[in-house]
Design a protein that fits this description.
This protein has six helices and eight strands. By secondary structure, the chain is of the alpha+beta class. It has one domain: Aminopeptidase (3-Layer(aba) Sandwich), CATH 3.40.630. It has an eight-stranded mixed beta sheet. Strand 3 and strand 4 form a beta hairpin.
């Protein structure tokens, strides 16, 4: 079953997170061949560099919350980090904090108990280099995260988005996320916490 907001014609098999190659096209018909694989500790310098380049490319820096060096290292060890490589160079990466009890699990900010935190995935950060925007990498990562979260036993996904980032907010809503609350987070910036159910409740399935 395809999650809402994800293109159905992306040519990759997401049943496994093993290394594989895919070809994506932008709206101008230009193609881009990418190697997709799980990131590891050796990818840390490239991942940190991609984040810095993405932040430097933004006109309004406050819409993007920097992931610290310690958080990147932690996620490479304990979470789900998945990258797209072009010509051996990391071009885009997504980080998902998996079902564990940690302040980085956004359920902590919502008062979730331990059992619910362990059934919750936090879609933490996605970095796409400017020259690789427009190829559907966000849609591709959305499917990868959803499938991996379900595989890990999660039944809901949480994320944050700046109220001033209309593009990201629109993408979140298109992908089935709903705004739960607004909080001041990170270094004192406003953020919506958004949520998407990954597993429908029985009564919801029967209505469908």
């Amino acid at each position: 079953m395809w999650p809402r907001g994800c293109a159905k014609d992306l040519r990759y098999n997401i049943m496994s997170t093993n290394e594989r190659v895919t070809e994506l096209k932008n709206r101008h018909g230009q193609s881009c061949e990418l190697l997709l694989r799980r990131c590891n500790a050796g990818d840390f310098p490239a991942l940190a560099d991609v984040q810095e380049k993405v932040i430097a490319s933004l006109e309004d820096g406050h819409i993007f919350a920097r992931t610290s060096v310690e958080e990147i290292e932690e996620s490479l060890r304990e979470d789900f980090c998945f990258g797209a490589f072009s010509g051996g160079r990391l071009s885009a990466v997504t980080i998902m904090v998996v079902n564990r009890v940690t302040p980085r699990n956004l359920g902590v900010h919502l008062g979730y108990g331990e059992e619910r935190l362990r059934r919750c995935a936090t879609y933490d950060s996605t970095f796409v280099l400017p020259e690789f925007r427009g190829y559907g990498l966000q849609r591709m990562f959305c499917k990868i995260r959803d499938e991996e979260a379900l595989r890990l036993g999660c039944d809901e996904a949480l994320a944050t988005v700046s109220p001033d980032n209309s593009v990201s907010l629109g993408n979140m809503r298109a992908n089935g996320f709903e705004i739960l609350t607004e909080k001041v987070m990170y270094t004192g910036v406003r953020r919506y916490i958004v949520c998407k159910k990954l597993i429908q409740q029985p009564e919801e399935r029967s209505r469908g």
